[in-house]
Amino acid sequence: MSLSKLFTIGVYGYSENEFFEAINDARIKTFCDIRRRRGLRGPKYAFANSQHLQNRLEKMGIRYLHFIDLSPSQELVRMQGQVDQEKGVPRRERNELSKEFIEGFTREVLDDFDATSFIKRLGPNPGAVALFCVEGGPEACHRSLLAEKIANALKVTVEHLRPK
Predict the structure, then answer these.
(1) How far is CA 6 from CA 9, 30, 51, 115, 152, in A?
(2) What is the Cα–Cα distance from 18 to 122, expressed in whole angstroms?
(3) CB-based contacts of 95: which residues, under 8 Å, 6+ apart?
(4) What angle do CA 120, 74, 129 make, to 5 degrees?
(5) pLDDT reported for residue 65
(6) What does the alpha-carbon distance between residue 61 and residue 112 come to, in Å, rounded to a whole number?
(7) DSSP state letter for 62
């Protein structure tokens, strides 16, 4: 049981077709949703709402798994939102995480995270794995922190899929 490649992907900035094309082009086999809330408001990103997303991935032959334990707490999300508001940056345009968020996520999730146990949770033959959350850029999302932890522990490369 090994991880062939690790990807990250967000939804902001993608159209529905571009999003699923990126996943298909990367040959993702296991899609890990690491959001706490799996719904998005409005029609633009409705394709990333949990049930729609799961149905589409199933049709593509991609395994969907949800890991709420790898999402930031509501407290951390609110704290990051407050920092964004103070800087006058809309959430969908954030391009970095605050120092406080990184420290909090590290303490809440990453300090006790075991990459080998995570890979076992993916099941046999996970193939290429994607970590998914909503932010467009990985530097603005906890998925980059988790990906770095996995990459360092398992000596795998990470590719951050981005909208064109």
Answers:
(1) 10, 10, 24, 12, 12
(2) 25
(3) 89, 137, 139, 140
(4) 30
(5) 98
(6) 32
(7) -
